[in-house]
Design goal:
The complex is a heterodimer of chains A (114) and B (113). Chain A has 114 residues and is mainly beta. In chain A, 0% of the residues lie in helices and 55% in strands. Classes of the chains: A mainly beta (114), B mainly beta (113).
């Protein structure tokens, strides 16, 4: 158990509304990641963080922003939700000082945009 | 062509059977390799890292073939509880400190009683 929680676990929202998903970890890991998982695609990286206030884009970052003001929290914001952002969102961490090595995932957030 | 490809299955096998999955990757800059297990509507969980010499963890054996650019996972004496989707994951170095994990879409295993 990597001590990762995500909130909310489920959310239904309307097109055009902003949505923020939270990832919280209790073990002071440096690297944190946000992925989305859709049928027919492997997990795809949205954004990641390598420290407080240090973030970078992944392959599907359009329409998303992130913030990390504390080591333990990594927030993902959908600035104006669209139906194409209906997905399952997973947060992950890497242990130690290596990024993109072994990653451990939170339980996920199922987001539906109507 | 996808960077990581897996047979989606499903692989339907009886309890006690041996089953093997292959995964091919296209980028020769791939450095590290992993197998994850994902149960339905759950998060992926790391099953094992794959080392160059091959490695074994109980009933699970992982192999890496760099020349042919594939990795494999062998499960012996299948249990009902092994039913899940198995994700092949590859760490690729794009130059310098730029790394990325590429996830396959998974292979579904259904172990039948």
């Amino acid at each position: 158990d990597a001590g990762i929680t995500q909130s909310p676990r489920h959310k239904v929202t309307e097109t055009g509304t902003p949505v923020t998903l939270r990832c919280h970890q209790t073990e002071n890991h440096r690297y944190m990641y946000w992925y989305r998982q859709d049928p027919g695609h492997g997990l795809r990286l949205i954004h990641y963080s390598y420290g407080v206030k240090d973030t970078d884009k992944g392959e599907v970052s359009d329409g998303y922003s992130v913030s990390r003001s504390k080591t333990e929290d990594f927030l993902l914001t959908l600035e104006s939700a669209t139906s194409s952002q209906t997905s399952v969102y997973f947060c992950a961490i890497s242990e130690g000082q290596e990024s993109f090595y072994e990653q451990y995932f939170g339980p996920g957030t199922r987001l539906t945009v109507t | 062509r996808k960077e990581v490809e897996q047979d989606p299955g499903p692989f339907n096998v009886p309890e006690g059977a041996t089953v093997a999955f292959n995964c091919t990757y296209s980028n020769s800059a791939s450095q590290s390799f992993f197998w994850y297990r994902q149960d339905c509507r759950k998060e992926p969980k790391l099953l094992m890292s794959v080392y160059s010499s091959g490695n074994e963890d109980g009933r699970f054996t992982a192999q890496l073939n760099r020349a042919s650019q594939y990795i494999s996972l062998l499960i012996r004496d299948s249990k009902l509880s092994d039913s899940a989707t198995y994700l092949c994951v590859v760490n690729i170095n794009y130059g310098g400190a730029t790394n990325k994990l590429i996830f396959g879409t998974g292979t579904l295993l259904a172990v039948q009683p």
